[in-house]
Design goal:
With 89 residues, the protein is mainly alpha-helical. It has one domain (3-88): Monooxygenase. It has helices spanning 3-31, 39-59, 62-88. The protein is elongated and about 55 Å long.
Length: 89
């Protein structure tokens, strides 16, 4: 497959998967209502995204690095608020 097309697909996938996460992170931050969010799921998700970031760094793949860094930051914020909410109960 053409290298430019491969890169374009990688950047498009990175953008879409990261952008899809932004509304959830924004809603969680704005409302502080995380009652519908599963703590084990977010722990697993954030760990997985962190591992994808590390993988991207090892192979030097910019779309993987950028997408997973941004998603890791956003999911970590949601996870932080979910843990704080869980401790209050």
């Amino acid at each position: 497959m053409n290298i430019q097309l491969t890169g374009l697909i990688g950047y498009a996938a990175a953008f879409l998967t990261t952008a899809a996460f932004v509304p959830q992170a924004y809603h969680s931050w704005k409302t502080r209502d995380l009652s519908g969010i599963s703590l084990p799921m977010y722990l697993m998700f954030t760990t997985g995204v962190t591992l994808w970031l590390i993988y991207g760094l090892f192979i030097g793949d910019v779309p993987i690095i950028l997408a997973n860094f941004i998603t890791m930051v956003l999911s970590s914020l949601v996870l932080y608020h979910k843990i704080r909410e869980s401790k209050k109960k």
